[in-house]
Write a structure and sequence with these properties.
single chain, alpha+beta, 133 residues
C-alpha cells in the first residue's frame, strides 16, 4: 500500500484532461506531499530512462528498471515510476505519467513492488479518462 488511509488526505491538481496540458497533481496529508504526479502530453515518445535519471526533480526516479509484461512502456524505481502510451489528444500523440513518492527515505526498504502494483492499476485507469483517439 502506497498511502495509509487518513482523514486528512486532500488533492491539489492543475490537471485539465480536456486541455491536455502538462501539469502536476499532488496528494497531500495535511501539508506534506505523499504522492506527486505529473501528467504530460507530447508530440513524440519520450525516453523514459532519460526522464528518470535526469538530475532535475520533475521526473526523477531512483534506481529505475523497465517493467515487462505491461501494455505500455513503464519503469519503476524505489521511489517512483514513469509510464507512457500512445494517446492522441489535443495535447499530442503520447501521454506520460510520472509518480514520485517524496516521503520514501532511501535508507528504508524499497517500495518498488507496491509502486509497480499501483501503476499497473492506476495508469490504465487514467488513460481511459483521456479520450484518446
Amino acid at each position: 500500500m502506497l498511502v495509509t488511509p487518513a482523514d486528512d488526505l486532500h488533492e491539489f491538481s492543475r490537471v485539465d484532461r480536456a486541455e491536455a496540458v502538462t501539469a502536476p497533481c499532488v496528494l497531500l496529508s495535511k501539508h506534506d506531499p505523499v504522492l506527486e504526479f505529473r501528467f504530460s502530453w507530447d508530440t513524440r515518445a519520450t525516453d523514459l530512462m532519460y526522464l528518470a535519471t535526469d538530475p532535475g526533480a520533475v521526473s526523477n526516479v531512483t534506481a529505475p528498471r523497465y517493467v515487462e509484461n505491461f501494455p505500455a512502456k513503464m519503469l519503476v524505481g524505489v521511489d517512483g515510476a514513469i509510464s507512457q502510451t500512445a494517446c492522441v489528444t489535443k495535447g499530442g500523440r503520447y501521454f506520460t505519467l510520472t509518480l514520485q513518492l517524496p516521503q520514501v527515505q532511501m535508507a528504508r526498504k524499497s517500495r518498488r513492488d507496491d509502486i509497480e502494483k499501483f501503476m499497473r492499476a492506476y495508469f490504465p485507469a487514467t488513460v481511459k479518462t483521456l479520450d484518446c483517439a
